[in-house]
Amino acid sequence: MIDLQVPDSVPDAFRAAILAAHPSFAGKSFTVAGRGWHSIAVDVGGRFIAKFPEGAEAEEALRREASLLAAVRPRLTMAVPDMTIHEGPPLFSLHGKLPGGTLDGGGYARLDEEARRRLADDVALFLVELHAIEPAVMREAGAGPVGWWDTEEATLAPVWPLLPEHIRGPAQAAIANYRRLSPDPLGEVYGFFDAHGWNMAFDHGEGRLKGIFDFADSGFGPPHREFVQISLIAPELAARTVEAYQARTGRVLDRGRVFLLTAAMRLSELAGAIETGEHVDGIRGFVLDWFEQRVLR
Q1: Partners of 42 in the β-ladder
Q2: Which one of 13, 188, 213, 276 is separated from 166 by 20 to 30 angstroms, measured CA to CA?
Q3: Least confident among 24-38, 118-132, 182-196
Q4: 8 A C-beta contact, residue 267 and residue 156
Q5: CA-to-CA dists, residue 285 to 94, 103, 122, 176, 267, angstroms
């Protein structure tokens, strides 16, 4: 997984805003919990998470996320944040901390067979329940179309020289096939579309998923796309979740479509990394891993 630069300590302005809204937190510890692409999270006393967006676009996204969570929470078995917005300044959100930690490939590899099966089924149930929500409910809450990856030829041109020859050919073929994909035969649903391990609260002691968070990238999109980000934990988990989703819904998923969508995402992310000069080696590794795996194709 890619590490983003995290501040060493909580900015004074963040601490002051939290205490202004919740004076009872005065005796609690304040630590930086992590950094997303557009926000910084602050852990308050090990029990609450405050999220501070960076910029107007991020503020709008945070308000929308709170509205979306209010709509989905009563409809889900899986725990998700109960988020409130505080105007500040600076504006921030606050929610009770979900128990557990993130889940990466190493953590998944240490799980036994029963824990892997349970995890896949829990994620599948989460997706099934999200996809069953009436679209009008989520549109009213602020959901829109999910964003898509940039796979234009000019965008991907810098990627190809970084790939070994035995990967470059299959990757170029995958992009060509991705561009020829017809609309998803399962239509469009409101979905999460960001179920990687950074957004999971996983109890490693129990081997159980306790919650899922960060709905900022949720929206309307094709069901097959849900399994793209899951593969960042492990392709095997994505494959197991595909099977569990099919068992719960009776719908037939096209594993080849999931493979192509995931290839497009990873190649586009690598192009973005090359442009910024950040995390190139790590994301290149994600690309190589995907084309070398044989679990989900």
Answers
A1: 32, 50
A2: 276
A3: 24-38
A4: yes
A5: 35, 18, 28, 21, 11
- Report the candidate in 296, 287, 283 with the shortest Cα–Cα distance to residue 238: 296
Q: What is the pLDDT of residues 126-142, one digit of tens each?
A: 999 999 999 999 999 99
**Tell me, what amino acid is at 285?**
G
- Phi, psi at 192, each rounded to 5°: -85, -50
Residue 37 bridge partners (DSSP): none
Domains present along the chain, CATH in parentheses: 12-96 (3.30.200.20), 105-292 (3.90.1200.10)
CA distance 58 to 64: 10
Structure confidence at residue 39 (pLDDT): 87
Q: Supply the angle between the helices 165-179 and 255-276 in degrees, to the nearest 10.
A: 110
User: What's the gap between Cα 11 and its chain centre?
Assistant: 26
Q: How many residues does the chain have?
A: 297
Percent with pLDDT over 70 in the chain: 97
Amino acid (1-letter code) at residue 91 = L
Residue with tokens 């980000």: 229
Bridge partners for 40 per DSSP:
35, 52
Taking a C-beta distance cutoff of 8 angstroms, is the pair 6, 32 a contact? Answer: yes
